[in-house]
Amino acid sequence: MGPSNIFPPSASLKYSMVVLAILFAVVLIFPEQALAKNAGITRHYKFNIKMQNVTRLCQTKSIVTVNGQFPGPRILAREGDRLLIKVVNHVKYNMTLHWHGIRQLRSGWADGPAYITQCPIQTGRSYVYNFTVTGQRGTLFWHAHISWLRATVYGPIVILPKKHVPYPFPQPFKEVPIIFGEWWKTDTEKMISQALKTGAAPNVSDAYTINGLPGPSYNCSAKDTFKLKVKPGKTYLLRMINAALNDELFISIANHTVTVVETDAVYVKPFKTKVVLITPGQTTNVLLKVKSKAPSANFLITARPYATGPAAFDNTTTAGILEYEQSASSASKNKTRKLTLLKPTLPRFNDTNFATKFSNQIRSLATAKFPANVPKKVDRRFFFTVGLGLNPCPKNQTCQGPNNTMLASSINNVSFVQPNVSLLQAHFFNKSKGVYTTDFPANPPFKFNYTGTPPKNLMVSSGTKVAALPFNSKVEVVMQDTSIIAAENHPLHLHGFNFFVVGQGFGNFDPNKDPAKFNLVDPAERNTVGVPSGGWVAIRFLADNPGVWFMHCHLEVHTSWGLKMAWLVMDGKGPKQKLQPPPSDLPKC
């Protein structure tokens, strides 16, 4: 007997109406719980910060890790999920973690940059990073955000679309995170501390790594090689992340073409390429459709730097191996002969022409489902010079920068001085006096030929200055590289927002001619963009996220020298436009 016969028709109708009434009441009383099905789930992670002995390049050293893993564990979530990540610090260093590219809507306390949104987690202490992934899906990463600890403290973040929502590209057979890093034989904390005392540039790295492994081009490293094993005819989604400290990277797979489908966790118009360029702080998802029949060869996956300045850089190449699963018959044939190992061709280390062409191909989908909500009108305009400079040598000290000075870097000639309490706390509790000022210059202190002959005085000024923005301001920032000391490509990262890359060019930005060429239709939407060497880039964003948001060069050496600033976005009028109070376990300075 079917369930419809349990009640007579009238009773069944009454029963249905009672059930509907109860459900309606539940939705009214508990709207959050009723909607929770669509709002995602809560995922818990525990990150123990601990030392671990790791051997690379014939040498064992003790490194800072999460849970003893290098690289660190993958964070997996779906769009709409809430993450609770408990970080317990068991090492001698102060620690903070940053969830790079996560918008952190009204949850700035969980953003992570030391002394910007929080005091660090001290030895023996813990902190729970609590945030919800809103309106984002794709590949991002997490890393330490204090001193140079991100050299070994990093890992992937994979945000899947909501359940039953497909990718806007063919469903891959398998997804593989590929995270590029940089390895030093020396202790990086001692190294940067020494460099900041003497004013010299710190040592360059000894190797690059793929998923923590240097690969066969380095001493003792053939056994430490990343291998990507593939089945003929299948399509793989490679989630590429550049977690290196100081180097942009060209990446290629011998005899294979990939299709770029996403950058910085934003879908893009697909385009094919043999070489991918990723700056530190950027992520790029590519589809790799492998050959339909297993060839009698293996293929190197290589990465080496794109370097534009005259400074020394690590000019080595990391390599992994793409291996095809062989059929039984070809496997027995190949047992007797060694498979050929094919190498890709990478651009020259200073190939700015390729870099420009590559970045110009990145365009938003700009569809009804994935719109490019670029601000068409602007109410706050900023023109930032970004680049290097000098600080005078302290009295009674010899310095190793040019002519007994100390190397520095700045935005609009302000080299940022890190405070000793968190800017976000000072803002929230109205205790900014003596911590920061809100007079960050909207323009350089004086005009000069930015990419031509530098001015005579190369000294920077210093200060802890922020730029204040009313809630929902439509902001345009033009970032202009300078030739002071040297022109160089600077990957600038903005916390708390994605921005649209509306224009870029070489030479000095022309405010009369260049804006006419801006792309306001389908510009790339990113969280990190390379300011071209000897050129400029223009970005726009909507300041819809109250809090204090760090903006800095993602070349760690330049951040250490002061190429950083912060935006202070005021609260809006509505209840959902205000920064929430800090959590009770927020670390103390």
Would you kindly provide a written description of the structure presented here, covering whatever features stand out?
This is Laccase. Its cofactor is Cu cation. One of its GO terms (cellular component) is apoplast. Lignin degradation and detoxification of lignin-derived products. It is found in: Secreted, Extracellular space, Apoplast. This protein has 589 residues and is mostly beta strands. The longest helix has 21 residues, at 9-29. The protein contains seven helices and 33 strands. The relative contact order is 0.12. Strands 10-9-12-17-14-15 form a six-stranded mixed β-sheet, with no helix packed on it. Helix content is 12%, strand content 37%. Helix 1 (9-29) packs across helix 2.
SSE diagram, text form:
Layout: H1 9-29, H2 31-39, E1 42-56, E2 59-66, E3 75-78, E4 82-89, E5 97-100, E6 126-132, E7 138-144, E8 154-160, E9 174-183, H3 188-198, E10 207-210, E11 227-230, E12 235-242, E13 248-253, E14 258-263, E15 266-273, E16 275-278, E17 283-289, E18 297-306, E19 318-324, H4 328-336, E20 340-342, H5 352-360, E21 380-392, E22 405-411, E23 414-416, H6 423-428, E24 461-463, E25 466-469, E26 473-481, E27 490-494, E28 499-506, E29 524-526, E30 528-531, E31 535-543, E32 547-553, H7 556-561, E33 564-569
Parallel strand pairs: 1-4, 3-8, 9-12, 11-19, 18-20, 21-26, 23-24, 25-33
Antiparallel strand pairs: 1-2, 4-6, 5-7, 7-8, 9-10, 12-17, 13-16, 13-18, 14-15, 14-17, 18-19, 21-22, 26-31, 27-30, 27-32, 28-29, 28-31, 32-33
Catalytic activity: 4 hydroquinone + O2 = 4 benzosemiquinone + 2 H2O
Function: Lignin degradation and detoxification of lignin-derived products.
Signal peptide: 1-36
